[in-house]
């Protein structure tokens, strides 16, 4: 499989790469979108439930706070104090009058409070208050935890969590039937009656007088508040809610009526660890979102529990849409990958076709440039290469023609360097016969220069050979300029066998003679120095001539002056040894010329041309 991929075309590789990359990105985006949707849905549900809990608790807190404030006003009611003080517990008519009076007092305080299911004031002898909704038997009441809690609180208001009417007041017959006050919660308060009359006189219950107990009963439905509405409109089929006394107490209110008055479930105990919060709990293998918050007035805890299956129920639709979206995007990715691969690989395909045409010897083909990116630059260079190949072929053809012509010309003339050397030697002997020794020496120097040059066909020779040739050249130039200058050498002997470019010193010596000493009659000095510096060979040619103008030096170095030997030497050195080497030229006006030549690592020469 991998080999098939390697053997496939560049376009196929490119298309597969784009498809895999875009497919990977699309899958990652789909996964992230799905996870983000789930997280956002959970967050939104949590925020919504928290808002419902907070609003419901705030509403209940306001109601219960108002009830508690009203309850706190009962002990200082003057009419109630007078009624309790004046009642004759042995006279039934007195009890009835007191009952009517207390009923009115209770109605005055709680008659407009729909939350209060029933209100009574209990004594050991009588239960005062309306019995329209429910009746509390005296003796069972005083033997119940409600009375005990009120007495022990000594006048403090106490909230009683859910209790069973039948069990608390020993009404076993009621268990067989169904009635609306079967489960209640209540407020109890022992009344330490104290009041001021209209004259401002302070009154209180006499010592030994029984302190009555106020009891307000509420149905658990009160605690449901807005939970029922939220459950109905939320659409969560398995949402549950309720209120508990505390995490170790009992259920006070619940959407499941059978749980009211029962102990709190273990999973709920473990989950509730603070006054408010949100947790994911596992109940019998089912993940449940639990949000809870405690009321400020009573400390009772409201909660809403929703299975995560319900919370994420809408994700099935999102999942379906996501799958369709991913499929569509993958199709788009395939199309785009194909189009991009065709577009990007087009220059390479064109070059491939062009090469096939070039194989047949047609070099006139040109590939259109579609852009100036890397591939566009490659096409441009391909066209340039093709043009150069064409030019080289034409030039090679012309060179062969010229070579043929030159060969024919040489054959016709029968002229070669050996013929020239023999001719110059003959001229030398003729000069000696005519006693022209100076002329003869010039001729033989020229002949030897020709012999040295033609004998060595390489680009380099030994420094000794180069100096041998240079001395003969200097001899000729000294005779030409009638000893206008002298030459000094300072050459390290160890360098004589070092390989150097052929005739690399001659252009600088010639420059000093022709230009440096142009306006001098005598006294010209050329000093040639060679030394080793850090495994490099350095040469210095300096003179005391007129120097060269800076603009002229710049033009020489830039190659603007054609056929200059100085620039040619610099090019040869750089070609042979690298761009870090070459010629450095300095010529302060009127102070002579200084040339430094640096060549690469030392290479010993096998040539042994002696200096004559």
From TrEMBL:
Q: Which domain of life is it from?
A: Bacteria
Would I find Lipid metabolism among this entry's keywords?
no
Membrane-spanning segments:
15-34, 288-306, 318-344
Alphabetized InterPro entries for the sequence: Bact_2-comp_sensor_kinase, HAMP_dom, HATPase_C_sf, HATPase_dom, Sig_transdc_His_kin_internal
Q: Name one Pfam family in it.
A: His_kinase
User: Which UniProt key words apply to this protein?
Assistant: Cell membrane, Coiled coil, Kinase, Membrane, Phosphoprotein, Transferase, Transmembrane, Transmembrane helix
Give the Gene3D superfamilies listed for this entry: HAMP domain in histidine kinase, Histidine kinase-like ATPase, C-terminal domain, PAS domain
* Molecular function as annotated in GO: phosphorelay sensor kinase activity
Query: What sequence ranges are listed for the domain HAMP?
Result: 342-394
- List the record's Gene Ontology CC terms alphabetically: plasma membrane
Signal peptide extent: none
Report the subcellular localization: Cell membrane
The UniProt entry, under PROSITE patterns, shows: HAMP
PANTHER family from the xrefs?
Answer: SENSOR HISTIDINE KINASE YPDA
Q: What is this protein called?
A: Histidine kinase
Q: Which organism is it from?
A: Paenibacillus polymyxa (Bacillus polymyxa)
Lineage of the source organism?
Answer: Bacteria, Bacillati, Bacillota, Bacilli, Bacillales
């Amino acid at each position: 499989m991998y080999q098939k991929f390697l053997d496939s075309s560049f376009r196929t590789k490119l298309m597969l790469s784009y498809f895999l990359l875009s497919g990977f990105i699309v899958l990652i985006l789909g996964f992230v979108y799905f996870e983000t949707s789930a997280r956002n849905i959970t967050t939104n549900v949590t925020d919504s439930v928290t808002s419902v809990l907070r609003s419901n608790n705030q509403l209940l807190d306001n109601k219960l706070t108002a009830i508690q404030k009203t309850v706190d006003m009962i002990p200082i009611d003057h009419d109630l104090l007078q009624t309790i003080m004046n009642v004759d517990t042995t006279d039934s008519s007195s009890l009835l009058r007191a009952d009517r009076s207390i009923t009115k007092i209770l109605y005055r305080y709680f008659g407009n409070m729909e939350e209060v299911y029933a209100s009574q004031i209990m004594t050991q002898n009588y239960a005062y208050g309306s019995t329209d909704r429910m009746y509390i038997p005296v003796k069972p009441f005083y033997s119940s935890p409600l009375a005990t809690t009120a007495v022990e609180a000594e006048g403090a208001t106490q909230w009683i969590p859910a209790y069973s009417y039948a069990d608390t007041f020993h009404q076993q017959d009621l268990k067989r039937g169904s009635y609306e006050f079967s489960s209640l919660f209540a407020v109890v308060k022992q009344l330490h009656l104290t009041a001021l009359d209209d004259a401002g006189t302070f009154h209180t219950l006499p010592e030994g007088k029984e302190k009555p107990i106020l009891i307000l009963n509420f149905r658990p439905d009160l605690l449901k508040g807005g939970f029922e509405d939220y459950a109905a409109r939320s659409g969560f089929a398995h949402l549950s809610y309720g209120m508990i006394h505390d995490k170790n107490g009992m259920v006070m209110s619940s959407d499941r009526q059978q749980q009211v008055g029962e102990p709190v479930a273990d999973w709920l105990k473990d989950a509730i660890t603070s006054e408010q919060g949100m947790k994911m709990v596992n109940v019998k293998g089912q993940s449940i979102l639990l949000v809870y918050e405690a009321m400020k007035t009573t400390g009772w805890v409201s909660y809403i529990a929703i299975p995560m299956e319900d919370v994420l129920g809408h994700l099935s639709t999102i999942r379906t849409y996501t799958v369709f979206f991913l499929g569509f995007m993958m199709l788009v990715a395939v199309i785009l990958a194909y189009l991009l691969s065709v577009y990007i690989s087009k220059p390479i395909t064109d070059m491939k076709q062009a090469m096939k045409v070039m194989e047949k010897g047609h070099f006139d083909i040109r590939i259109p440039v579609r852009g100036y990116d890397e591939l566009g630059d490659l096409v441009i260079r391909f066209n340039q290469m093709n043009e150069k190949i064409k030019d080289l072929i034409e030039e090679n053809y012309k060179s062969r023609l010229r070579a043929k012509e030159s060969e024919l010309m040489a054959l016709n003339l029968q002229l070669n360097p050996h013929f020239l050397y023999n001719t110059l030697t003959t001229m030398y002997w003729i000069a000696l016969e005519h006693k022209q020794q100076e002329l003869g020496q010039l001729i033989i120097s020229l002949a030897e220069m020709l012999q040295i040059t033609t004998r060595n066909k390489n680009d380099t020779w030994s420094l000794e050979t180069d100096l041998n040739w240079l001395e003969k050249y200097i001899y000729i130039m000294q005779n030409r300029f009638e000893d206008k200058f002298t030459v000094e050498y300072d050459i390290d002997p160890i360098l004589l066998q070092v390989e150097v470019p052929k005739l690399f010193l001659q252009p600088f010596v010639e420059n000093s003679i022709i230009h440096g000493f142009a306006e001098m009659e005598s006294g010209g000095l050329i000093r040639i120095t060679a030394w080793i510096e850090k495994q490099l060979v350095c040469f210095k040619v300096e003179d005391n001539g007129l120097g060269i103008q800076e603009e002229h030096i710049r033009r020489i170095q830039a190659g603007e002056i054609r056929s200059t030997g100085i620039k040619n030497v610099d090019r040869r050195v750089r070609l042979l040894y690298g761009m870090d080497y070459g010629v450095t030229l300095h010529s302060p006006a009127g102070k002579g010329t200084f040339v430094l030549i640096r060549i690469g690592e030392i290479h010993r020469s096998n040539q042994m041309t002696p200096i004559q």
